[in-house]
Each structure stands twice: as structure tokens, then as C-alpha cells.
Amino acid sequence: MTFRPDFISFDCYGTLINFEMGPTAEKLFADRVDPQRMAAFLASFKAYRLDEVLGAFKPFFDVVANSIRRTCAAHHVEYRESDAQALYNAVPTWQPHPNVVETLEVIAPHYPLVILSNSMVDLIPASVAHLRAPFHAVYTAEEAQAYKPRMQAFEYMFGRLGTTPDRMMHVSSSFRYDHMTASDLGFMAKGFIDRGHEPSSAEYGVSRLSDIRQLPGLLGL
After folding, report:
1. pTM of this prediction?
2. CB atoms < 10 A from the CB of 5, how many?
3. Domain check: are 150 and 181 in the same one?
4. Rounded distance, CA 114 to CA 132, Å?
5. Is there a domain that residue 2 lies in?
6. Among 2, 50, 96, 181, which is least packed by CB within 10 angstroms?
7. Within a domain: 160
8. Is residue 60 domain-shared with residue 112, that is, in the same domain?
9. Helix (H, G, I), strand (E, B), or coil: what is residue 52?
């Protein structure tokens, strides 16, 4: 280890919490989408969610509603007003990935842990409770009035912590939402938890970890 960050920030959904938006949508639309077309349907849903967070801030419910509505339109599938609510309501029920809770317990006594999440103030507490870690701070897109990958979200975190990116490490399983921006901002270190839902890359100065249990070793613990 050649670095010792003042804070370690984490993406929440996908990195720490198993982000089951796709599997939830697959079950929800099983009666409307042919199994042979389901993969393409879910890929569109994922792409539209990213597109929805790139503009002016809107509540996460609207991100979900707009993206699933656009997906249905693109694939000529019936959209029901209850779809967005069912997807949104599922978020607090999702659980941590394996080994996450135990790994955070190892790191927490040595480094202040922070969450920066594309979430809402009333949505994130249930997920943080599942993680059972003593987080120093938890920040949401609602508070920042911007979603990652926009720099404004990260800048809000820096301002609240009273620090700069060159004194922090950021951990995420996503290049598109986190590590591309973290690289542009100049984080001291970046840990990429490779969960297989995005292509890996060596071009953004990340430390690739195939298992979150490797993170303490990267930190010299």
C-alpha cells in the first residue's frame, strides 16, 4: 500500500447492496415480455436509467418511472402505472452482497467510511441498516441535487467532508457511474469491485478487486 486516505467513499447500490433492479423488472414483466426478448428489454432499461440521471435533478422515483416507461415504448410493451411503484418499493428490501458486512467491519475501525449514493433521503436508511457498519457520513443525490456520474454529486461530498479528492479513496463496481468521474476528479485511489455487470478497464487508474474481501489487504490491514 502506498496511500492512506482520510476517508473511503463507497457507492451503495451494486457495490455494497445487490442492485436487483434488473431481476425485479424481469419478474414484473414476465407476463408481457417474451423470454427471448427479455435480455434486450433489461439492457434498454439499464441504459435509460443512466440517461435519466444525466440531466437536471429529479426524484429517483421519476428516474425509475421515466426509464421503465421509455423502455416499454421502445419495445412496444404495455406500461402500467403500478410498474414504477413496484420497482421503487423493492429497493429497500435488497440485501448486501456476500462478504460486504464482514469486510466493512474490518475496515471501519481504521478509516472513516462514507456512502455517496444515487438515492433519496427517505430511501437510503433501510439499505444502510442492512450494511450494519458505522458510517461516518451518508450522502444522497437528493442532497447533492445531482446524480453520479455528474461531478456535482462528488463535489457535494467533498464540501460536506471538508476535504479534497486527492485525500480520498472511492470504491465502486461501476466505471460509468463512478470511476470515470473519480479519475477526472483526481481521487488518491480507486477500488473497482468487479462484479461482472460492467466491462473492466485498466485505463482509469483503478485497483481491480475480484472480491471485496481483498479491500482490507489493499489498505494494509
Report:
1. 0.95
2. 19
3. yes
4. 13
5. no
6. 2
7. yes
8. no
9. helix
pLDDT score at 201 = 87
Let me know whether 167 and 207 are in one domain: yes
Return the pLDDT at 126: 97
Give me the domain span that covers residue 81.
21-93
Residues 40 and 135 grouped into a single domain: no
Q: Are 48 and 66 in contact (CB under 8 A)?
A: yes
Contact 44, 71 (CB under 8 A): yes
13: closest CA among 117, 168, 123, 152?
117
Q: Which residues of the chain have pLDDT under 70?
A: 1-2
Q: What is the pLDDT of residue 2?
A: 66
Residues 6+ apart with CB under 8 A from 90: 20, 21, 24
Evaluate whether 209 touches 191 at the Cβ level (below 8 Å).
yes
The β-bridge partners of 175 are none
